[in-house]
Amino acid sequence: MDDIYVLTLLKKFIENYITEQEYAELKIIVINPAYEAVIKKFMDSVWEDPGNLVLFTKLRSDAVYEQILASKQFIAAKNVDKRSLWHRPYYWKSIAASVLLIAALTKTTQKLFFSSPAVVAYSEYRTLAGERLKINLPDGSEVWLNAGSQIRFPKNFEGHSRDVQLDGEAFFDVLHDEKKPFKVFTGKVSTQVLGTAFNISTYKPQVIEVTVTRGMVSVQHEGRQLGMLSRNKQLDFNTVSKIAEQHVVDAGAYTAWTNGELVLNDVTMEEAAIRISRWFNVKIIFKNPGLKKCRLVATFPGNVKFTQVMSIISRLNNFTYQVTDKNVYLSGNGCK
């Protein structure tokens, strides 16, 4: 029986749609030491709900109780003349031991699966629109955080992995450590490496983009393998359709922003607007939605001015723009 099946049964039990046959099977599993690790992993993820403690404790108690009823000692005692049992000390000791066992099991379940996790101190960094930031992680790895992004990680990587949470875009240059994999979580997608360099972006609407410049990267969604990426490979995962696509790209074009360059590498105007908005701290509004489909290829140095960028891309895609405070309105025929 594999771990995935055990996790499926546990999830169905907690969410109260498990069948009688599956429940009987689960009662056997929860008292089998071979599955202790996978059960603990699951319970660690749901311990915050007190109701789960009650449910799981009852499950374990029921399992042990049925094990006691099925034991040879209990069957033998049940077949003895009940009147003689009143005068047999071992009978009462057996009953008492059974009760104590179930009580002890309840306490063990609480301690093993529902003990409060240790308090972990975190570091958190945010960049505003127009800002970029270089960060040194506790293990010596380096992160470049792009505009309008947020990153969160423990102040010390003391567990079995180096876990980082990201919203926005960042480039990671990770030190190699075989014993402690490096994981970046963007929503329900995780990117895992041992030591490599890669870029992750959530700028595109409903898309998580992973681009590798060095080494190997594994990308997963809720435990499902989406792909293994090597240098100059990119994976786009649509968070709505759950479809992942891989491409061969020039990874340097997707990480040039770490050197202060604004790169619009064959992107739609919709994506270009997101990047420009974050870069210059403005809000771009399309008067004609058809303009969002127009494509653009352009690279600008870090000291470029907003007006220079807009002047060039408006000529490339034949549209006009008007600036009011920090709002930029685009008008034109659009593209099909």
Automatic annotation (TrEMBL):
Residue ranges constituting the Protein FecR C-terminal domain according to the UniProt record: 262-329
Single GO MF descriptor: sigma factor antagonist activity
Protein's name in the database: DUF4974 domain-containing protein
Top-level lineage group: Bacteria
InterPro entries to which the protein is assigned, alphabetical: FecR (IPR006860), FecR_C (IPR032508), Ferrdict_sens_TM (IPR012373)
Domain FecR protein: 124-217
